[in-house]
Amino acid sequence: MTHTSARPSARQGRDLLQPRELTVRRSVSRYAEGSALLHLGNTQVLATVSTDPKVPPHMRGKREGWLMAEYSMLPRATQERLGRERNLSNGRRHEIQRLLGRAFRASLDLTPFRNQTLVIDCDVLQADGGTRIASLLAGYAALHDLCDRMIHAGTLSDWPIRHPVGAVSVGLVDGEVRLDLDYQEDVRATADLNVIATLDGQLIEAQGGAEGTPLDPDLYVQMLRVGIVGAGDLLRRVQSQLK
């Protein structure tokens, strides 16, 4: 039977179900309409929000605006230099961008942004596991920054973030369920999930599964529940630093 108690482990003093330390600063970009710099353990992500005064063809004439996300990693975000992502057909990159876009659109009422597109750029400055999770949390903080600025400027009358969104990774490592994996844990995981959920525990998306061997469905559900709680925990940490 898998042991999942939150006991200390060798993972830099963290309990198995304890996320890494999180810090976030908003309004870090001089030019972006909204921005945030987030550290999750050793993973660092800069997120910016830009407003574009047009929408894609499928949104023309609609009551709502549109939102899209872009994701990239700097060449020295990892131990060995990565080539710059000049090839826009990169599959992993597009997968993450679609994940981020779906999550942010589920979070935000886009009616106040009619005939506009919000573009959230998430750039990984340093990677140590959980880059898409850190990108989502940083993007949420940048959206909060945008909306707060617009409220204070009088260009937005009602708060449009309907469902604050959090995220966390969950993995099965050495037969143990662990929360918020760093890189060394992630490469050893025999199952992993990225869980995106609201503050009140509603699921937006779960992405992942078994690596190499099938996963018991009951254990999958257990990992999902752990992830929903962990996503809420990290979201509360972000919110406490945005005030």
UniProtKB/TrEMBL annotation:
Binding residue positions for phosphate: 92, 130-132
PANTHER family assigned to the protein according to its UniProt record, in alphabetical order: EXOSOME COMPLEX COMPONENT, EXOSOME COMPLEX COMPONENT RRP41
EC number: 2.7.7.56
Family note: Belongs to the RNase PH family.
Pfam (any one): RNase_PH
Gene name in the database record: rph
Cited function: Phosphorolytic 3'-5' exoribonuclease that plays an important role in tRNA 3'-end maturation. Removes nucleotide residues following the 3'-CCA terminus of tRNAs; can also add nucleotides to the ends of RNA molecules by using nucleoside diphosphates as substrates, but this may not be physiologically important. Probably plays a role in initiation of 16S rRNA degradation (leading to ribosome degradation) during starvation.
UniProt name for this protein: Ribonuclease PH
InterPro entries, per the entry: ExoRNase_PH_dom1, ExoRNase_PH_dom2, ExoRNase_PH_dom2_sf, PNPase/RNase_PH_dom_sf, Ribosomal_Su5_D2-typ_SF, RNase_PH, RNase_PH_bac-type
Enzymatic class: transferase
UniProt keyword list: Nucleotidyltransferase, RNA-binding, rRNA processing, Transferase, tRNA processing, tRNA-binding
Keyword Transferase: yes
Catalytic activity: tRNA(n+1) + phosphate = tRNA(n) + a ribonucleoside 5'-diphosphate
Lineage top rank: taxon: Bacteria
SUPFAM superfamilies the UniProt entry points to: Ribonuclease PH domain 2-like, Ribosomal protein S5 domain 2-like
Family matches, as Gene3D superfamilies: GHMP Kinase, N-terminal domain
